[in-house]
Amino acid sequence: MKSASSPEHRRSFILSSFFFILFLCVLASINEVRFDSLLKFGHSALSNTPSSNNSSSENHPSSVNSSSDDIRILIGILTLPDQYNRRHFLRLIYGTQTPVGARVDVKFVFCNLTKEDQKVLVALEIMRYDDIIILDCKENMNKGKTYTYFSSLPEMLRDTDENSTTPYPPYHYVMKTDDDSYFRLNNLVESLRELPREDLYYGYVIPCPSMDPFVHYMSGMGYLISWDLVEWIRESEIPKNHLEGPEDKTFGDWIREGHRGKNRFNAKWSMYNFPEPATGCTHELWPDTIAVHLLKNQEKWIRTLKYFNVTDNLKPSKLYHIP
Ligand SMILES: *[C@@H]1O[C@H](CO)[C@@H](O)[C@H](O)[C@H]1NC(C)=O
Ligand SMILES: *[C@@H]1O[C@H](CO)[C@@H](O)[C@H](O)[C@H]1NC(C)=O
Ligand SMILES: *[C@@H]1O[C@H](CO)[C@@H](O)[C@H](O)[C@H]1NC(C)=O
Ligand SMILES: *[C@@H]1O[C@H](CO)[C@@H](O)[C@H](O)[C@H]1NC(C)=O
Ligand SMILES: *[C@@H]1O[C@H](CO)[C@@H](O)[C@H](O)[C@H]1NC(C)=O
Ligand SMILES: *[C@@H]1O[C@H](CO)[C@@H](O)[C@H](O)[C@H]1NC(C)=O
C-alpha cells in the first residue's frame, strides 16, 4: 500500500475495489440462482407428481430419497427370535444397499416369543431398529407360518388414521424369503419395474430345470406377490383350509386352486442356489444376479459378498486401513 498515498491512486483503488465487490456480488447471485435451480431440479427429478411434495420417507431410513411414485416393497425374512446374530448380519447386508426409485422395507418375521430373555432383547432390537414383525402363532416352518405372515399384513398395515397420507396399497409387492438368501435390491427393483402390480407371482420356478412359471410353484428362497394377492390370502377360504406342507409348495397350491397369479415372472437364472455343492438348482455367481440362496455358512456369504464387490464404496479415512 506504499503507493496508495497519492489521492489519484487512492481514488482508483477505491473505484476498482468497488467494482471488484460488485463483481463478487453478481457472481454470488448467479451461483445462488444456479444452486436454487439445481435444488429444484433435484426435487422435481425425485417427484414426478405434484402430490408427492412431501415424501413420507422420514420414517424409513432405508429410503431417504424415495417419493410417493416409487415402487414400495416389503421383504419379510422368516426367521426365529433367537437368531440375533443372523439379524445383525442381515441388517448390515441390507442396510448398506440403497435401491434407487424404490422404498424397500426389510423386516424380520417370527412367531410369539417364548423366553424371558427374548422379551428384553427383542424389545431392545425393536427400539433400535423397528424392523421386526411378531405374528400371533407358535414357531413352525410348514404349519402355516407363511399363511399367518401374509394374512396378517393387511390388518397390521391398515391405516386407521382417517387424515393420514399413507399411500394405498402400503406395499405394491410383498416378499417372503429366508435368512439364508441374499437379495441384491437394485437388481430386484429393476426386474420389477416393468411388471404388473396386480395378480403377480414372482420367483424361482420349481422344479429347478423348468423355466415355465405356470407349472408348479416358486421356491421358498424368495417369492414375491402383488398386494391384491396378499389381500386375497387374507380373505379366501382356500389357504385357510390348506395350511400344512412345505410352505412354498403349499403357497403354489393356493394360487393354483384359486386361479390366481395370471401374471407370473420366473427370475431364474437371476435367482439361484449357491454354486456349491453343484446341483440342478445351482448357478455360478454372475453379474446378472437378483438373489443367491443356501448361504449356509460364513464362507459362502463372504465369497458372495466379495464377488459382488459390496465393500468397494467404503469411504477412505484416516481412522482405518483395510488392505
Ligand atoms: C408443493 O410445493 C410447492 C412449493 O414448495 C407448492 O407451491 C405446491 O402447492 C405444493 N404442492 C402440494 C400438493 O403440496
Ligand atoms: C409438507 O411439509 C411441510 C413442512 O414439513 C408442511 O408445512 C406442508 O403442509 C406439507 N405439505 C403436504 C402436502 O403434506
Ligand atoms: C439422496 O440424495 C442425496 C442428494 O441428492 C444424495 O447425496 C444421497 O446419496 C441420496 N441418498 C440415497 C439413499 O439415494
Ligand atoms: C401369542 O401371544 C399373544 C399375546 O401375548 C396371545 O394372545 C396369543 O394367544 C399367542 N398365540 C399363540 C398361538 O400362542
Ligand atoms: C382429521 O382432520 C379433521 C379436520 O382437520 C379433524 O377435525 C379430525 O380430528 C382429524 N382426525 C384425526 C383422527 O386426526
Ligand atoms: C468387481 O470388481 C472387479 C474389479 O473392479 C470387476 O472386474 C468385476 O466385474 C466386479 N464384479 C461385479 C459383479 O460387478
Automatic annotation (TrEMBL):
Gene3D superfamilies given in the database record: 3.90.550.50
Protein name, entry field: Hexosyltransferase
**Similarity annotation:** Belongs to the glycosyltransferase 31 family.
Please indicate if the UniProt record lists Flavoprotein as a keyword: no
- Highest taxon above the source species: Eukaryota
Stored PANTHER family: BETA-1,3-GALACTOSYLTRANSFERASE PVG3, BETA-1,3-N-ACETYLGLUCOSAMINYLTRANSFERASE
Record Pfam families:
Galactosyl_T
Q: Residue ranges of region Disordered?
A: 48-67
Q: What is its main location?
A: Golgi
Originating species? Carpinus fangiana
Question: Which Gene Ontology molecular-function terms are recorded?
Answer: hexosyltransferase activity
Its taxonomic path starts at:
Eukaryota, Viridiplantae, Streptophyta, Embryophyta, Tracheophyta
Query: Could you say which EC number(s) this protein's record lists?
Result: 2.4.1.-
